[in-house]
């Protein structure tokens, strides 16, 4: 059965080979270590929701292959309703955790994208990638796997193509093709949720030319594959996450660098190998779906920011209604990104393999909003909370509870007599964490850069066609083309 419990999930992580480092330390148990336990807890809440009657319909579904009940994040997105389920799950997860849950997100999108792309490759090249992919998906559904996804390469010199780099390991590439599999090396950077994942789906970071064919590789590997070293990167909350107390919640996300050093991947886990022509299709389909769905992520966190603002108002001694105008602005921002993503899905269609692909123009436009509107929501959340929610304006949990002077700190932080100083402290720290910590990096570059999204919007906006509509409405009978470029 594919519907696993929190206990099943935690057990699966505990059984993995330690290969994650932070602050020079090998993390032996990701479920218990201070640097990783919060992201594990966030993902575990997805398993809880799968068994909760209130949320089960959004967190579980039926396998289109077997008819068995499975976690939704292991499912195929064949219909508009299926892909809308992706957004619903994301918004719920942010409401539960306040932060990203990459292991219930990127690998899910990757398997659906590759179902479409392997259909194209198999048809043109006579390969059997989709058959391999189906076997892997069936296993992921049966085991209830949490699967991170890795696209972004370290890249190296941005003016050079991957094959021109002085260090070939600046991008993940095929180093050797064997009869029974391939050997890969290279670096993927800024990858979400790896510490909480069972496996990692590796996709190309860009479209490639024939001379870059070694970089056109798609594989899925166990997180603890031999030859992979993972380094958890610093986050704004690093100095606090190693301590107990209320300074940050018991949920969160981590980012990581993945260093592949001569990793052998057997054929059954290889779904693209040097077919450079199709790498661009991976990016096209992936970004369309991901940038549609990410609108739900920032909306879900925005919902929590409205709630955090309400808590701060009340613990400060004011009614939340005092800030209703600001909260309406926050709600409008949330619904803009969420509904624009849903719109991109509704304007989409089935891809060549039968899985749904969102409309690229609308999805990438949504990404531009995702990189702007949440920052305004964060500003409003800080505005409502007052100066106490800003970094540097609030004593630590350790100071709050210090036996010598903690009573003075608690006395200073007491506001409304209806609520304890600790309740106000926790509310303030949550607002700070939401606006200056956990969610900020994912808004700007999560799912790709806004500048990259604007390039897609530019490419898909038919300016000449629109100018023709305007010309006819204006009653202009002569053609009005672009001026010729000066030589």
Provide a descriptive summary of the structure in words.
Residues 279-475 form the HpaB/PvcC/4-BUDH C-terminal domain. Keywords: FAD, Flavoprotein, Oxidoreductase. Residues 5-272 form the HpaB/PvcC/4-BUDH N-terminal domain. Pfam families: HpaB, HpaB_N. With 487 residues, the protein is of the alpha+beta class. It folds into two domains: 6-278, Butyryl-CoA Dehydrogenase, subunit A, domain 2; 281-463, Butyryl-CoA Dehydrogenase, subunit A, domain 3 (Up-down Bundle), CATH 1.20.140. It has helices at 6-14, 37-50, 56-59, 80-97, 106-125, 129-143, 238-241, 279-315, 324-346, 360-370, 373-385, 397-400, 406-413, 421-436, 440-444, 450-460, 463-473; strands at 20-22, 25-26, 60-62, 69-71, 147-150, 173-177, 181-192, 199-202, 217-222, 228-232, 255-266, 270-273, 349-350, 356-357.
Q: Quick recap of the structure?
A:
InterPro entries: Acyl-CoA_Oxase/DH_mid-dom_sf, AcylCo_DH-like_C, AcylCoA_DH/oxidase_NM_dom_sf, HpaB/PvcC/4-BUDH, HpaB/PvcC/4-BUDH_C, HpaB/PvcC/4-BUDH_N. Pfam families: HpaB, HpaB_N. The chain is built from 17 helices and 14 strands.
Tally the helices: what do you get?
17
What is the CATH top level name of the largest domain?
Answer: Mainly Beta
Biggest sheet strand line-up: 2-1-10-11-7-6
CATH level 4 superfamily of the largest domain: Butyryl-CoA Dehydrogenase, subunit A, domain 2
Domain count, please report it: 2
State the share of residues found in helices, binned by percent.
40-55%
Low-confidence stretches: none
End-to-end gap: 67 Å
Please state the second-level CATH architecture of the largest domain. Beta Barrel
The Cα radius of gyration reads 24 Å
Gross morphology is globular
Note the main sheet.
Answer: 6 strands, mixed
Keywords: FAD, Flavoprotein, Oxidoreductase
GO molecular function: oxidoreductase activity, acting on the CH-CH group of donors
Domain HpaB/PvcC/4-BUDH N-terminal: 5-272
Pfam family, one: HpaB_N
């Amino acid at each position: 059965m594919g519907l696993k419990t929190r206990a099943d999930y935690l057990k699966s992580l505990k059984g993995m080979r330690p290969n994650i480092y932070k602050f020079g330390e090998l993390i032996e148990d990701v479920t218990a270590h201070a640097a990783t336990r919060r992201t594990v807890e966030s993902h575990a809440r997805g398993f809880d929701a799968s068994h909760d009657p209130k949320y089960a319909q959004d967190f579980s579904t039926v396998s289109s292959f077997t008819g068995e009940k499975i976690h939704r994040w292991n499912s195929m997105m064949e219909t508009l309703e299926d892909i809308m389920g992706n957004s619903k799950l994301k918004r719920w997860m942010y409401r539960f955790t306040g932060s990203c849950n990459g292991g219930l997100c990127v690998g899910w999108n990757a398997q659906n994208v590759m179902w479409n792309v392997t259909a194209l490759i198999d048809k043109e090249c006579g390969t059997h990638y989709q058959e391999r992919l189906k076997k892997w998906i069936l296993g992921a559904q049966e085991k209830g796997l949490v699967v991170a996804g890795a696209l972004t390469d370290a890249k190296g010199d941005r003016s050079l193509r991957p094959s021109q780099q002085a260090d070939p390991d600046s991008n993940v590439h095929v180093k050797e093709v064997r009869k029974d599999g391939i050997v890969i090396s290279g670096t993927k950077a800024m990858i979400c949720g790896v510490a909480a994942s069972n496996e990692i789906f590796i996709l190309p970071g860009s479209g490639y030319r024939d001379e870059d064919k070694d970089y056109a590789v798609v594989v899925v590997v166990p997180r603890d594959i031999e030859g992979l070293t993972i380094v958890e990167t610093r986050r704004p909350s690093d100095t606090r996450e190693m301590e107990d107390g209320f300074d940050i919640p018991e949920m969160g996300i981590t980012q990581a660098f993945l260093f592949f050093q001569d990793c052998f991947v057997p054929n059954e886990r290889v779904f693209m190998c040097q077919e450079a022509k199709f790498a661009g299709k991976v990016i096209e389909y992936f970004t369309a779906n991901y940038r549609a769905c990410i609108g739900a992520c920032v909306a879900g966190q925005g919902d929590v920011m409205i709630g955090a603002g309400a808590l701060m108002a009340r613990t400060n001694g004011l009614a939340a209604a005092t800030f209703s105008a600001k909260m309406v602005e926050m709600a409008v921002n949330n619904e803009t990104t969420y509904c624009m993503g849903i719109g991109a899905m509704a304007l989409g269609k089935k891809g060549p393999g039968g899985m749904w692909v969102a409309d690229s123009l609308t999805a990438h436009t949504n990404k531009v909003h995702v990189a702007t509107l949440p920052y305004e929501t964060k500003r409003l959340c800080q505005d409502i909370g007052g100066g106490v929610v800003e970094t540097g304006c609030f004593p630590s949990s350790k100071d709050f509870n210090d036996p010598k002077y903690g009573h003075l700190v608690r006395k200073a932080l007491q506001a409304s007599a209806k609520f304890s100083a600790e309740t106000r402290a926790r509310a303030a720290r949550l607002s700070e964490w939401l606006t200056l910590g956990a969610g900020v990096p994912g808004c700007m570059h999560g799912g790709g850069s806004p500048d990259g999204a604007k390039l897609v919007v530019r490419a898909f906006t038919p300016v000449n066609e629109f100018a023709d509509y305007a010309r006819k409405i204006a009653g202009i009978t002569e053609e009005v083309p672009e001026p010729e470029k000066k030589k």
